[in-house]
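does this look right to u?? nicotinamide-adenine-dinucleotide version
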Amino acid sequence: MSTFKRNIVITGGAGFIGSHVVRLFVNKYPEYRIINLDKLTYAGNLANLKDIEQRP
Ligand SMILES: NC(=O)c1ccc[n+]([C@@H]2O[C@H](COP(=O)([O-])OP(=O)(O)OC[C@H]3O[C@@H](n4cnc5c(N)ncnc54)[C@H](O)[C@@H]3O)[C@@H](O)[C@H]2O)c1
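got this back:
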């Protein structure tokens, strides 16, 4: 059984705005599982999430 209180899917989370949204949720709600679904187009950049990439 999942130990997370909620599961939240964020789309486009490797982009400019989305990466800030993902970071905000990961840091503000550690009890939630944040799932980032991104097509990784030219606008997506995983380096935007470098500081939180090890988080579950
Ligand atoms: N100041 C800056 O440095 C800067 C940098 C980038 C963008 N911007 C501005 O920010 C605004 C847009 O930012 P944003 O973050 O909304 O968009 P974005 O274009 O930066 O990112 C969109 C994200 O969605 C992803 N994506 C695209 N299609 C998808 C799909 N079908 N399924 C899943 N993921 C998908 C892309 O891979 C990308 O990661 C614009 O006004 C732009 O000019 C500013």
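The chain has one domain: 6-52. idk if thats expected tbh
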